[in-house]
Design brief:
The complex is a heterodimer of chains A (about 160) and B (about 675). Chain A is about 25% helix and about 40% strand. Chain A has a 10-stranded antiparallel beta sheet. In chain A, a hairpin with a 5-residue loop joins strand 2 and strand 3. The longest helix of chain A is centred in the N-terminal third of the chain and has 9 residues. Chain A starts with 9 loop residues before the first strand and ends in an 8-residue tail after the last strand. In chain A, about 45% of the residues are buried. Chain B is an alpha/beta fold and about 675 residues long. In chain B, the strands form 2 sheets. A 7-stranded mixed beta sheet of chain B has the order 2-3-4-1-5-6-8, with helices on both faces. In chain B, helix 3 links the parallel strand 5 and strand 6. Chain B is elongated. Classes of the chains: A alpha+beta (about 160), B alpha/beta (about 675). The interface between A and B is large, with 36 and 41 residues. Strand 4 of chain A pairs antiparallel with strand 10 of chain B.
């Protein structure tokens, strides 16, 4: 799949895409297949996209050109799930933001390592599996709940 | 002893320019690399008796041929190899810098590596083993902090030692390549060696450049026919290798270089905590905010605009008033000693030209002071990020927006500022669009005419309409020009977002000073010539009344009448337009000359209908950049064709727009 346009998503580049000029430039900046990148933000009106490359540099490129890169998604925010309407089961990989958010979510029963599935897109509701509580989340919070695919068991439901 | 040339090279955002300034002080000269829009800076320094010319190579990520900058570096290394390369690295992120370092190290040209920003790396807890790095790169490595000057003494010593020693034993680092590539390169290198054409440069380095191909190597082969056969062979082998590997040569080579770089980083850097710049992240949270980012950008642009022009315009007025005073007081003195025609020529023609040049100086200084602040602080990259969506419509990148916007104050520095843009395509396209931004000189003309010809209630609307027209002209021209491929294809928009940092006043001042020097050096003669030509046209043949029907300008005006009649402009106004070529605000003064004595406002109101006036204003808005702007375009583009094209586009668009306005107005029943 192409680079996801959701901030906080992390993925590993598989190829540099078909656009040769883009591929060359990225290669010469040291952004190569196998590099891990994190989407930092998207520009206003979906123009440019800022990536943090795992070496620590920050790179901006055009959304269209970013979508041409092929990558394996390793983590994405819960809000992205809500945007795509995917109702698979995912594991909470990290809670971004400060102690405050972590504490707040813990009180509502969500912790790193939990498996979670989307119930409703807007307002966003999710269930913690297997029999955990139902959880309503604000958009800002959903941006900071980082999920990863659950390898092995695919308990769709 | 002859001057020794040392080239300083680095990828962008490593502090190369800061180091360059530290090493050379203000002892620099700026020019252009031959035939391209990339500026060439040289500085001079003495290293214990050796006179060194430090050549500032443009910041590039590699020396493979893609952008104009990369071709400049390639050509320089292949054609005029320096005695030494000084490569600058960013200590906070060695990995991204080492790709270029490894390419340069293969050249066989002695190299000294300066690892910059050691202080910030230390602050981040990075511990870099420079000795191991030096061992692996086969070149001396010095840790420095260019901003504070730390380590520069060591660096100077190391440069000196390396220049004296010329160590033949410098072993280039080994980058492991796929066997099929390695073997082909080695075979090619042997063939290159057999031609004995490039003694200063490593054969392997030449072999890889030949394989990459491109215009620079083609030129090289043309000059050194002995390489022809090897070059053809290289092309053939490249296709073989690419087929065998199933990948582009550039990407494969980059992959191998950066694999080696990764290894080097692992060996030399300890305690590498992955902390990015926290402060930068926090500032960006606000400045690049989804909703706040753009409004903040416009606030900053407003401040920038005000900073340059609210300060600069009074200074400009002051300088030009000073010159007018000088002209006035010189005239009687000169008349007493010299014939009248010579006084007219030197005082009204030549001195006027010099005056035009000088009035630009304050604004150029301010412009580049503020631009440097925006650029050196790191905000420029953010501006490009924010504006990319809009500017991409014109196939330009976001930075070009700032140039065009600042053109609304004055076109001249805006054109000079295109130098900061990323590719030749961006630079040329932007400098062709800038002349349509309604600069303050044109505004003076419009305010004057609108207040004479229109009711007080309508006049502001007319001026506003002209601003709108200017904006439309920029966008339309951009949309049309994007159909043509100026300066090659647009390069992909891939830009590093550097961490924020405080600009160094020294660098800012130095930059402003250089720009002024360069403006005087490159554009001044052209501007003075232009002004003198216009003066001759409007004052000759001898005896004719200035701007009158008997002058050349008068004849031209009348000859052009059939062309200007359909747009409602008569010969007198045509003459003022010729005057306006010097500087747009001169149009008003020229009207006073052409209409003769009496109250100008009454004359103009009697001679021109509002519709004709509107047509005249539209024409003035678009018709041609003033001579100073043309001088700047010519200097920046290094091409008369681009400068002439700019005039041609302007005249065509101006005539068409005025025609539509005038004839449209007549159809609607206005006169």
């Amino acid at each position: 799949m192409g680079l996801p346009p959701y901030p906080n998503s992390e993925c590993i580049l598989r190829t540099l895409g078909r656009n040769r000029a883009v591929a060359r430039r990225l290669a010469q900046m040291g952004v190569l297949p196998g590099t891990r990148v994190t989407v930092v933000r998207t520009g206003p009106l979906g123009g440019a996209i800022e990536l943090a490359v795992d070496g620590g540099q920050s790179i901006a490129l055009r959304g269209k050109e970013a979508r041409g890169l092929e990558c394996d998604l390793i983590a994405f925010p819960l809000s992205a799930l809500a945007q795509s309407g995917d109702s698979g089961v995912y594991r909470v990989k990290a809670l971004l933001g400060g102690q405050g958010l972590r504490h707040k979510l813990a009180q509502r029963g969500l912790a790193i390592g939990d498996r979670i599935t989307l119930l409703q897109r807007r307002p966003l509701r999710a269930r913690i599996l297997p029999q955990g509580p139902e959880l309503g989340l604000g958009w800002g919070e959903a941006n900071k709940v980082l999920l990863e695919p659950v390898s092995g068991d695919h308990a769709h439901g | 002893m002859d001057r020794v040339s040392v080239a300083i090279s680095a990828i962008p955002n490593t502090g190369k320019t800061t180091l360059f300034n530290q090493l050379t002080g203000s002892n620099q000269s700026v020019g252009n690399w031959p035939g391209v829009t990339v500026s060439k800076k040289q500085g001079y320094l003495r290293l214990d008796g050796i006179e060194v010319t430090l050549v500032d190579l443009p910041g590039t990520y590699s020396i493979s041929p893609a952008s104009e900058e990369e071709r400049v570096v390639r050509r320089y290394l292949l054609e005029t190899p320096p005695k030494l390369i000084l490569n600058v690295l960013d200590a906070r992120n060695l990995y991204r810098c080492l790709g270029l370092t490894l390419q340069l190290a293969m050249s066989g040209i002695p190299m000294v590596v300066a690892v910059n920003m050691m202080d910030e790396a230390r602050k981040q807890g990075l511990d870099i083993d420079l000795e191991i790095l030096s061992e692996h790169l086969g070149a001396p490595v010095v840790g420095i902090v260019a901003r504070t000057g730390e380590g520069l003494e060591r660096l100077r010593e190391t440069l000196l030692q390396t220049l004296w020693a010329r160590p033949r034993s410098m072993h280039p680092p080994h980058v492991s390549l796929p066997p099929v590539l390695e073997q082909n390169i080695m075979e090619l290198a042997r063939k290159v060696g057999a031609t004995h054409t490039m003694p200063e440069i490593n054969d392997t380095f030449v072999a890889v450049r030949l394989m990459e191909g491109g215009t620079v190597t083609e030129e090289l082969v043309r000059r050194k026919p002995a390489l022809k056969e090897v070059a053809d062979d290289a092309k053939y082998r490249r296709s073989l290798v690419e087929k065998a590997l199933g990948a582009d040569l550039h990407t494969t080579c980059a992959q191998c270089r950066f694999n080696a770089a990764k290894g080097l980083v692992l060996e030399t850097t300890h305690n590498a905590p992955q902390v990015s710049d926290r402060l930068t992240g926090q500032i960006d949270q606000v400045l690049l905010h989804r909703w706040l980012g753009l409004p903040l950008f416009f606030v900053i642009m407003f401040a920038l605009f005000q900073g340059i022009y609210a300060l600069g315009t009074p200074l400009q007025d002051w300088v030009s008033a000073g010159f007018a005073g000088l002209q006035g007081s010189l005239r009687p003195w000169a008349l007493a000693h010299l014939p009248v025609w010579l006084v007219d020529f030197s005082v009204d023609g030549l001195l006027q030209g010099v005056g035009v040049v000088v009035t630009f100086l304050p604004i150029i200084v301010l412009f580049f002071v503020f631009m440097s602040l925006i650029e050196d602080s790191g905000y420029m990259a953010r501006a490009a990020f924010l504006m990319d969506r809009f500017m991409h419509l014109l196939k330009l990148d976001g930075k070009a927006f700032i140039n065009i916007l600042l053109g609304y104050g004055c076109n001249v520095p805006a054109v000079m500022g295109t130098r900061i843009l990323a590719s030749r395509h961006n630079r040329l396209l932007t400098m062709l669009l800038i002349p349509f931004s309604l600069c303050s000189a044109r505004l003076q003309v419009f305010l004057f005419l609108a207040s004479i010809l229109f009711a007080p209630r309508i006049a502001p609307l007319v001026v506003f309409g002209l601003y709108l027209g200017s904006f439309v002209a920029v966008v339309l021209t951009g949309l049309v020009l994007r159909l043509f491929r100026f300066g090659g294809d647009p390069e992909p928009f891939i830009m590093e977002m550097p961490p924020y940092r405080f600009p160094l006043w020294r660098s800012v001042a130095l930059r402003a000073w250089q720009e002024v020097k360069e403006f005087l050096y490159r554009a001044a003669t052209l501007i003075v010539t232009g002004v003198v030509i216009v003066w001759l046209l409007t004052h000759f043949p001898p005896g004719a009344m200035a701007g009158g029907p008997e002058t050349f300008a008068g004849h031209i005006g009348m000859a052009l009448d059939p062309l200007f009649d359909p747009i409602g402009i008569h010969w007198r106004e045509t003459v003022t337009l010729i005057f306006g070529f010097i500087a747009k605000e001169v149009v008003i003064g020229a009207m006073a000359v052409v209409y003769g004595a009496g109250d100008l406002a009454t004359h103009v109101a009697a001679a021109i209908t509002p519709l004709q006036g509107l047509s005249f204003m539209v024409f003035t808005l678009l018709y041609t950049p003033c001579v100073a702007t043309i001088g700047a375009i010519r200097a920046e583009s290094r091409s008369w064709r681009i400068a002439l094209l700019s005039i041609a586009i302007g005249l065509t668009l101006a005539w068409t727009a005025s025609f539509v306005v005038y004839q449209g107005g007549r159809i609607l029943g206005y006169a």
